[in-house]
Structures are given as C-alpha cells and as structure tokens.
Amino acid sequence: MAKKNKNQSAIKRKLAFPMFANYGTALKYFVEQGVGAEYVMAPEPTKKTIHYGEINSPDFVCTPFKHTLGSMIEALEMGADTLIELGGPCRLGFYGELQRQILTDMGYKFTMIDFDALKDVKKSKWIDVMKSVNPDMKISTMLVEATNTFKMIRYLDEIEELYHANMGFEVNRGAYDRIYRAFLLDMNTASSGVDIKNAYKKAKTAMDDEPLKKPALPLKVGLVGEYFTVMDRHGNLDIENKLCRMGVEVHRFMNVTNYNLGNSEPKFFVAAKHYMRFPMGPTSATNVSSAENYAKLGYDGIIHIKSFGCTPEVDIMPLLSRISSEYHIPVLYLSYDTQTSDTGLDTRLEAFYDMISMKKKVLKN
To answer: Residue 365 — pLDDT band, cuts 50, 70, 90?
Structure first.
C-alpha cells in the first residue's frame, strides 16, 4: 500500500464512494456537477480489494462490509480524503462508524460523511454538510443536479434491466455488451441533464434496434435477495451475465429505483401479509412479494442471493420454500462470502439451468 498522507486537513474536496454496482457514476455526477467538488472514482474491485477488506474486518461481519471497506481503502490510496457512506437498509446503516474507526486505526487521515447518520436530522443539515465540502456551492444548482442524478439512477436501472432481459438472445454476438459499455461511459462523462437524457435515448434505441433470436417462451429466472449482494456484480460474481450467456431472460426487481426511490418495502408488506404477519427485515417483504410475483407470471425459476449470515434473508427462506411448493417453481439458494468461487457458482448454475430447462420441455410436451 502507498504511504498514508499524515498532513491532511479537516475539510476536503476529493470525495469517494465505495464501488457498488454502477451507482458510483450517479454519485460522481452529483458531486462534480451539483456540489462542485472533485470525485475520486474507486477502481473496479479485484481479489486485492476483497483481500484488503477481509484482513481488516471483524471475522463474522457480512461480506458487503468487507467489499466496501476494501473499496474505501483503494479510494484513499488514490488520493481521496473524504469518504461518502450512504449506509443501507440493514446493518449496513451502522457500518459507517465502524469502518471510519477501522480506517482511522490504520493510519488514514480523512473525513467521513455518513448520510445514514443524518437521515433523522433536518434537511438543512444535509446542505450544511455539502457546504462544508464546497463553501461556494449554489443551493439552486445542487437541487437541479440532484433531480438529474435521480433521473440518471432511473436510466441506469432501466437500461440494465433491458440488458439482462435480452442479452442472452442477441443475433450479433457481443452487441449488447458494446451498447451497454458505451452507455455507461456516456453516463460517466455526462455533465448536464441533456447529456444524461441523450445517453439514455441512444442506448435504448440501439438495444431496441438490435435483432434478437428469442423464443416465444424463453427460460425466465427472477432474482431476489440481500440489498448489496443481489445488485453488485462483483459481490455476486456476475451471476446475471452468467445466466444470460446460458440463454436465460433474467429479471431483478431489487434496485435503487424500485426499492429506494419507489419506497417498495411498505407497499410489498401489505402484498405479502398472507406470508408474513410482521416485518421481518429491511428487504424481506419486497423479496417475498417479488418471488411470488415471479411465480404468478410463470417464471421458470427463482434464485435467492444473500451474503453469508444475513439474518433477514435467512428468515425469509422458509417463506420462499412455501412459494416454491405452492406454485411448483424451483428456488436456488446462494450464499456468498469472500471464499465463494466462480467454479462452484458455475456448477450450481449449470445444474439449476439443466433442471428448469428439462422441466420446461416436459411441461411443453
């Protein structure tokens, strides 16, 4: 590791956010265009990232904690001096302070902005925090760019959904990958709301125009699971693309647009009351209701993804088993930790694919 900077001051302008799916792109836009500060994009996670997080974390803490801690370390090594912690709907919401203490004990000098700790304070406090990063920030500009940031998040989620629904059936091999990568690059370099909208339109048109060889009744799999691991391709070992390459149409309701911006948990708790009398965790109702919805829509299988030891997701596994039994839909349970291998995952996915494929052929005949 590079030597820590011992002469950093309290107020900084180089902000970073731990790598999580593609949402760092939206935060980068907001920091640079809305707050007027410099953003340090954490690198794509590697085995080294996970190693940094693992050796500096408590033994039994969940895997997302280790992923994000390792990403923070790499961002600090790249020159970031202010870390943004957005927290999460479960224990992740309490991890900011613990990660701050670990990084401080490691010798790093930085400021942490933990928005989860600010969720119950007046909104004016949020503005004060951002003003501390850039005293020259214009509130009017910040509000406009916050709106554009939310639009970017919605577009990122929509294009990703379209990508995983159709990528496995492309006629021109690699076409969807090229379109999607170009879209992410356009979003990463966007500097205005017009740029964001144009990038979305360009990708949407390109995907709509790309020829597909899709059967009338393709194999369809729905993903449910723990907030971080089910969304982050590095945390789940790129499971969605693995399934797509097998010729599967993949859908995942859990994303920031549906869960956070759509406030889905309270709505789905009402929909899932015939399975759960009381709230069982931050994403439990959303996952149970989504799983039942996949079953009702005739999906061929459901995959439940969680990090090892995630209590809310362990608790809903019996409910997913009930849905599997009642609707005769197979459910594959996957639990991830830092030792989970691609080879082991590939073997289980191939077996699951063979099972749902044979079942579909039998029912068709």
So the answer is: low
Q: Which of 10-19, 222-231, 274-283 has the highest mean pLDDT?
A: 222-231
Q: What percent of the chain has pLDDT over 90?
A: 69
- The model's pTM is 0.91
Distances (CA, A) of 52 to 57, 139, 199, 306, 342: 9, 37, 35, 21, 20
**CA–CA separation, 230 vs 240, rounded Å?**
9
Position 2 scores a pLDDT of: 43
Give the span between the Cα atoms of 245 and 74, in whole angstroms: 31
Nearest to 257 by CA among 58, 22, 90: 22
How confident is the model over 224-270, as pLDDT tens digits? Answer: 999 999 999 999 999 999 999 999 999 999 999 999 888 777 788 88
**Alpha-carbon gap, residue 25 to 254, rounded angstroms:** 18
Distances (CA, A) of 126 to 32, 202, 341: 17, 34, 41
Three-state secondary structure string covering the chain: CCCCCCCCCCCCCEEEECCCCCHHHHHHHHHHHHHCCEEEECCCCCHHHHHHHHHCCCCCCCHHHHHHHHHHHHHHHCCCCEEEECCCCCHHHHHHHHHHHHHHHCCCCCEEEEHHHHCCCCHHHHHHHHHHHCCCCCHHHHHHHHHHHHHHHHHHHHHHHHHHHHHHHECCCCHHHHHHHHHHHHHHCCCCHHHHHHHHHHHHHHHHHCCECCCCCCEEEEEEECHHHHHCCCCCCCHHHHHHHCCEEEEECCCHHHHHHCCHHHHHHHHCCCCCCCCCCCCHHHHHHHHHHHHHCCCCEEEEEEECCCHHHHHHHHHHHHHHHHHCCCEEEEEECCCCCHHHHHHHHHHHHHHHHHHHHHHHC
- pLDDT tens readout for residues 75-92: 999 999 999 887 666 776
